[in-house]
Amino acid sequence: MREPQRVRAAGLPERVTIYEVGPRDGLQNEAAVVPVEVKAEFVARLAAAGHRVIEATSFVHPKWVPQLADAAELLTSMERVPGVRYPVLVPNERGLDRALEHGVEEIAIFASATETFANRNLNRTLESQFEMFEPVVARALAHGLKVRAYVSMCFGDPWEGPTPVAQVVSVGRRLLDLGCFELSLGDTIGVGTPGHVAALVEALGGPSRLAVHFHDTYGQALANTLTALRAGVTVVDASTGGIGGCPYAESATGNLATEDLVWMLHGLGVETGLDLSSLVETSTWLAARLGRPSPSRVVQALGENPSRTTAENVEE
Domain named Pyruvate carboxyltransferase: which ranges (predicted)? Predict the structure, then answer.
């Protein structure tokens, strides 16, 4: 399989950790329910491709995200490879209870940088969301779990417009102060641009403990990622095949595709530990089961997308 020509660029980290969100953030917006055995194989294929962080699922109430109703079954059935982290998203204390019951060692919480999205996604105000997170983080840390924090709508909100940088900084710092080891800055609707990314990283005091999570709605995800890397960020969220979106924000399109990110990083001489050929093969396999082509440009260039485009393949 073709590989990018490697030309090392100055000012970039030697290695980047790709935080794979395909099994959770990628699949959560699929209309047809994906069988749990397909999800388990997806996770196994990602580990085989070299991933060392794979967000497996979420203990959100099935009423809100039916696709993830099988979270407990998935965690019970999937193979866990030594040395691979399998974080799980939890929305509240009940979600944490279920995570602890299934031996989860790392969780993520999901906050909002805007008032409207906090209300729509969490049924909370911007301020009262912290009342929900505080006991979750405290209990998780007491049980020896690592806690990551996502912040959504960091660059813009479909109802409120541009998100003030100071507002994102306020939310982010409070989450870090709770004890979260990492803060993922989410461009939920994909409106961020490189200058905005650089300004936000600087306003948060630099890249320490930061990760970035870009959606490619306006084609800016790779440019924004490169800007974050030049600012010193070394953790990037991505979804194999570029699948995903946010069920609570209709304008949120797919995530940055892992393959597109790997092609760029390897071309820049940045190590990821991932095998591009295996990732493309996995995305092609998954696309056949989802019944539609992968939106990843690299998968389109290097793989064979399925010609069938109905959801019937999900049942295979």
Answer: 16-280
pLDDT digits (tens, 9 = 90+) for 68-126: 999 999 999 999 999 999 999 999 999 999 999 999 999 999 999 999 999 999 999 99
Q: Which residues lie closer than 8 Å to 170 by C-beta, 6 or more apart?
A: none
Q: What is the pTM of this model?
A: 0.93
Whether residue 201 lies inside any domain: the answer is: yes
Residues 155, 196 contacting (CB under 8 angstroms):
yes
Cβ 163 vs Cβ 157: under 8 Å: yes
Q: How far is CA 234 from CA 101, 115, 199, 221, in A?
A: 32, 29, 17, 15
CB 50 within 8 A of CB 16: no
Is the four-CA dihedral 166, 186, 84, 206 of positive or negative sign?
negative
User: Residue 57 falls within a domain, yes or no?
Assistant: yes
- The total number of structural domains in the chain stands at 1
CATH, residue 50: 3.20.20.70
CB count within 10 Å of CB 304 equals 13
Rounded CA-CA distance 283/280 in Å is: 5
Say if CB 184 and CB 198 are below 8 A apart.
no
Rounded to whole angstroms, the Cα distance separating 159 from 1 reads: 44
- Report d(CA 296, CA 232) in Å as an integer: 26
The two three-digit tokens of residue 287, written as one number: 């696309």
Q: Is residue 172 part of a domain?
A: yes
Provide the domain limits for residue 42.
17-315
Q: What single DSSP character describes residue 255?
A: B
Kindly report, residue by residue over 197-224, the tens digit of the pLDDT: 999 999 999 999 999 999 999 999 999 9
Chain mean position to CA 143: 24
Is 246 among the catalytic positions? Answer: yes
104 domain residue, yes or no: yes
**Alpha helix (H) residue ranges in 67-213:** 71-77, 93-101, 115-122, 129-142, 165-178, 194-203
